[in-house]
Amino acid sequence: MGHPIHTIKAFEISGPHRLRIEFGDGLVRTIDFRPILEGELYGPLRDLTQFNSVVLDREVHTLVWPGGADFDPATLHDWPEHEAAMIAPAQRSANTAEPSRRQEPLQHCSLSLPGTGLG
Fold first, then answer.
1. What residues contact 40, with CB distance under 8 A and at least 6 apart?
2. Looking at residues 3-32, what average pLDDT do you find?
């Protein structure tokens, strides 16, 4: 038995990183995307200007962003079933995205400025 094909009919921005999505079967779901906006593909969407550039691709009936990020409409439709699986890799990505910075000791240097008597 096949699984249902879900399509996105409309959406609106309902808050920072939040979208209210209407699906072809009439379901309406509001999703807060903040917890998954990490990594190379979704990380840039933390910038609200980038996030708010989302459009509905009417050919494939899903949400897309200019940087290439998109989501399977079935994942968004059944978000409560997929949310934890989407958050886990985002958290791993956030934890490894920036290597820890080692504090280097300051080095003493002298500077000679000609004509100033300094140095």
1. none
2. 96
Choose among 61, 55, 69, 53: nearest CA to 23.
61
- What is the C-alpha separation between 14 and 54, in angstroms, rounded? 13
**Average of per-residue pLDDT across 13-22:** 98
Q: Per-residue pLDDT tens for 35-52?
A: 999 999 999 999 999 999
* pLDDT score of 87: 87
Q: Which domains does the chain have, with CATH numbers?
A: 8-96 (3.30.2020)
Nearest to 47 by CA among 93, 16, 87: 16
The amino acid at residue 3 is H
Query: What pTM did the predictor assign?
Result: 0.74
**End-to-end Cα, the chain, rounded Å:** 83
Say how many CA atoms lie within 13 Å of 53 toward its Cβ: 12
**68: amino acid identity, one letter:** G
CA-to-CA distance for 64 and 34, rounded, in angstroms?
16
91/109 Cα distance (integer angstroms): 42
